[in-house]
Amino acid sequence: MTSFTEILENAGGALMIIGTVIFRPLLVSRYRRWNTIGDETTRNLPGDERVPTPLVTQTLAVTILTSPASVWPWLAQIGQERGGMYSYELLENIARCQMHNADSIVPEWELQVGALVRLGPPGYPVHKVVDMEHGRWLLLAGADLKTGEVPDLPTPGQAEYTNYSWVFFLQERPDGSTRLITRNHLDYAPRSFALKMIWEWFTDPIGFVMTRKMLLEIKQRAEKAPV
Predict the structure, then answer these.
(1) Which of 129, 154, 171, 226 lies in disulfide reach of 158, CB 3.0 to 4.6 Å?
(2) Peptide bond before 190: cis, by omega within 30 degrees of 0?
């Protein structure tokens, strides 16, 4: 049963989404680099080469007060059929995503290259794990809704495509804590007004709010878990 606290939390998430969409022109340059420090927005991360000329890039980060080895198991079980996306579960399920955020590690859920990371049941957006370094980084690419396969990278002059990558990178700090950095790149064609509204004026700010919550929830779980 959904608790009152969860209802308030998800209501706050809904308000944040509305505010970020409405005030996007004022907020976009800040939310696309939320909580980053130093060169985190400019450094090369795995998967950057998959989308060489992105129209949209978000780099978000959070400090987690435990080692990468303690963070990785939570990160490596994301997805609708696994541990959930650790975001606003009630909002996701209003959208019929059938999501449940796990509060424990299930080893059988650990992602491997080739696994699908679903954002909802079949027919909803889905990503595929295209590369990884166990314990350090996980790279996803946008996949076809029906087949779950990642389309070939677009060729110069291709008239229609969507090219999306999403990486999660764990960096250990000298004090033993972890920086969890996530970056997504998006390129698409045709670059019509309608697609610009969908991808940049709605999907982009909504994605920020949901991903921000995801990072904070992973942080909370990893810091609570026994080391």
Answers:
(1) 154
(2) yes
Separation CA 143–CA 98 (nearest Å): 19
- Report which DSSP code applies to 49: G
User: pLDDT for 63-121, tens place per residue?
Assistant: 999 999 999 999 999 999 999 999 999 999 999 999 999 999 999 999 999 999 999 99
Q: Which of 221, 202, 198 is nearest to 85 (CA)?
A: 221
Q: What is the pTM of this model?
A: 0.96
Q: Give pLDDT tens digits for 43-61.
A: 999 999 999 999 999 999 9
Retrieve residue 43's tokens: 């450094």
Residue showing tokens 């992105």: 54
DSSP 86: S
Cα–Cα–Cα angle for 181, 196, 188, rounded to 5 degrees: 65
Paired strand residues for 122: 124
Domains of the chain: 4-224 (3.30.530.20)
> Who's near 42: CB < 8 A, 6+ residues apart?
none
Residue 116: name the closest of 145, 90, 92 by CA: 145
DSSP letters, 60-94, are EEEEESS-HHHHHHHHTT-BTTTTB-SS-HHHHHH
Burial annotation 143-158 (CB, 10 A radius, 16+ → b, else e): beeeeeebeeebeeee
